[in-house]
Amino acid sequence: MNDTAIIDVLRTTAFFEGIDDEHLQRLAAITRVVEIPAGQELFHERDAAKEVYFLLSGSVAVVVCLPKIGCRELVDVGAGEMLALSPLVGRTRLLDSARTKKPTRALAIDGEQALGFCREYPEFGFEFMHRVAKGLANRLGATRLQFMELAGFHLPEAQLESD
Fold it and tell me: Which of 45, 92, 93, 135 is the most buried (most CB within 10 A)?
């Protein structure tokens, strides 16, 4: 897929909404569109952290495996969500594994170059990383609720002051 087609895909992806064309052109140069059939491993725990994925369609199970315990699905990631953010936070290795549950189409962005791009263009970098942080906060909140349920704790249905 050429850069013009990738720019069109970036424009229609909610994460990149409002990003100007100059920055989209630069991102397109470090982005590829990948299509992965159902049941295929996208990446494995401890693989080199090279690419960041933004799901366009499909479903991916993020899994963690522990000795003597086995593997557990942490979260099901769907369209509009991101995966493998390690290179954006300075990690050189991935912390978990991911396997497609359904045929999946995603943007794969070179993480090191994206991080460099954020440093070179601080205004873009702030906005990009702010969006990444929001995604991480949502994922952390969902994971926290999942762990609470596994432990047998449930949040009350009461409206809280902070809501």
Answer: 135
What ranges make up the beta strands (E) of 37-134? 41-43, 51-66, 70-78, 82-83, 97-110
Q: What is the pLDDT of residues 25-59, one digit of tens each?
A: 999 999 999 999 999 999 999 999 999 999 999 99
Percent of the chain at pLDDT exceeding 90: 70
**Residue 152 CB neighbours (<10 A):** 6
Q: What is the CA radius of gyration of the chain?
A: 17
- The Cα 147–Cα 115 span in angstroms is 31
What integer pLDDT is reported at residue 22 of this predicted model? 94
Domains within the chain, CATH numbers bracketed: 3-150 (2.60.120.10)
Phi/psi for 104 (5° steps) reads -130, 140
Q: Which two tokens stand for residue 54?
A: 């933004």
Measured CA distances, 89 to 5, 50, 131 (Å): 28, 12, 13
Tell how strand 31-36 and strand 97-110 pair up: antiparallel
- pTM summary value: 0.85
Residue 157 DSSP symbol: S
